[in-house]
Amino acid sequence: MQNILEQYKSVAEAEVKTWFEVGTVSDFPENSGACIKYKTKQIAVYNFARKDKWYACQNLCPHKMEMVLSLGMIGDKDGIAKVACPMHKKNFSLEDGTNLAGDDLKIAVYPVKIESGNVYIGFSD
Ligand code: FES
C-alpha cells in the first residue's frame, strides 16, 4: 500500500521535465473530473470552467487508498479550489494538496497547461 502512495509527489511548475499531452480541451467535461494515466500513476484532471482554471492531482485518495478523486465534486472554500472525495467527503486543496480539515493526509498536485487547445500535465520524471 505504502508504495502506491510514494509515487505521488507534488510537482511545481519549475520542476517540470515532461509536459505530457492528455487530450484536447473538449475531451474534458466542464466543472468535473476525468482520469488519465501517466506511467504507473493515475491522475485526476479537472476542467474547472467556473474558475476558468485547470487542476491535476493524484487520483488516489490517501484516506482509504481508493482511486476515486477524479469522481469527486469540485468546489471552492474561501477562494481555494478543492475536491471532495466521493467516499467520505474529505476535502483537499487543488492548489497545494493539503487536507482542508487540517488532517495529516495530503495529495500530490501537478501543473496543467493549455496550448493550442491541447491539455498538458507537468511531471518531474
Ligand atoms: S477514501 Fe477518500 S475520504 Fe475516505
UniProtKB/TrEMBL annotation:
<keyword id="KW-0408">Iron</keyword>
<dbReference type="InterPro" id="IPR012748">
    <property type="entry name" value="Rieske-like_NirD"/>
</dbReference>
<dbReference type="InterPro" id="IPR052034">
    <property type="entry name" value="NasD-like"/>
</dbReference>
<dbReference type="GO" id="GO:0046872">
    <property type="term" value="F:metal ion binding"/>
</dbReference>
<dbReference type="GO" id="GO:0051537">
    <property type="term" value="F:2 iron, 2 sulfur cluster binding"/>
</dbReference>
<keyword id="KW-0479">Metal-binding</keyword>
<keyword id="KW-0349">Heme</keyword>
<dbReference type="InterPro" id="IPR036922">
    <property type="entry name" value="Rieske_2Fe-2S_sf"/>
</dbReference>
<keyword id="KW-0560">Oxidoreductase</keyword>
<keyword id="KW-0001">2Fe-2S</keyword>
<keyword id="KW-0411">Iron-sulfur</keyword>
<feature type="domain" description="Rieske">
    <location>
        <begin position="20"/>
        <end position="121"/>
    </location>
</feature>
<dbReference type="GO" id="GO:0008942">
    <property type="term" value="F:nitrite reductase [NAD(P)H] activity"/>
</dbReference>
<protein>
    <submittedName>
        <fullName>Nitrite reductase small subunit NirD</fullName>
    </submittedName>
</protein>
<dbReference type="InterPro" id="IPR017941">
    <property type="entry name" value="Rieske_2Fe-2S"/>
</dbReference>
<keyword id="KW-0534">Nitrate assimilation</keyword>
<dbReference type="Pfam" id="PF13806">
    <property type="entry name" value="Rieske_2"/>
</dbReference>
<dbReference type="GO" id="GO:0042128">
    <property type="term" value="P:nitrate assimilation"/>
</dbReference>
